Amino acid sequence: MRNFFFLIVLFFLGQWLLKKLRRANERAQRGEAQAGGATAGGAHRARNGNGGHDTAASTPQLSDPLIRCAQCGVHTPRSESIVVAGERFCCADHARHYASRPTGRDAR
Ligand SMILES: [Zn+2]
Questions:
Q1: What residue spans carry the region label Disordered (predicted)?
Q2: Which of 16, 41, 42, 67 is most deeply buried (CB count within 10 A of its CB)?
């Protein structure tokens, strides 16, 4: 008798899961269609938000902020930058250059 009850519960659970999966699939398909518009809108908003001020100095809201290379001073997206000894660099070459310099910080 217990097994029978268990089977019924399993049956309902399975149906509930199927419904959830179908909804998730539908949402995923719709989400893909909307994602393009959403990102385009976001970019537009970001452009309007800055209002033409100096963008290099004040962009803390960006998901991928620009970081200044300690070697050459070039601004690079954080995802592409390399962190060595607490300093950020635009490429591995500059990290090596900076590390090979005996007085990197005290040069200035
Ligand atoms: Zn660099």
A1: 27-60
A2: 67
Q: How far is the CA of 73 from the centre of ligand 1 (A)?
A: 6
Q: Which domain holds residue 23?
A: 1-51
Gap between the terminal Cα atoms of the chain: 83
Ligand 1 centroid to residue 71 C-alpha, Å: 5
Instruction: List phi, psi (to 5°) of 77.
Output: -60, 145
State the distance from the centre of ligand 1 to the C-alpha of 14, rounded, in angstroms.
56
The model's pTM:
0.36
pLDDT tens digits along 7-31: 888 888 889 988 998 998 888 888 7
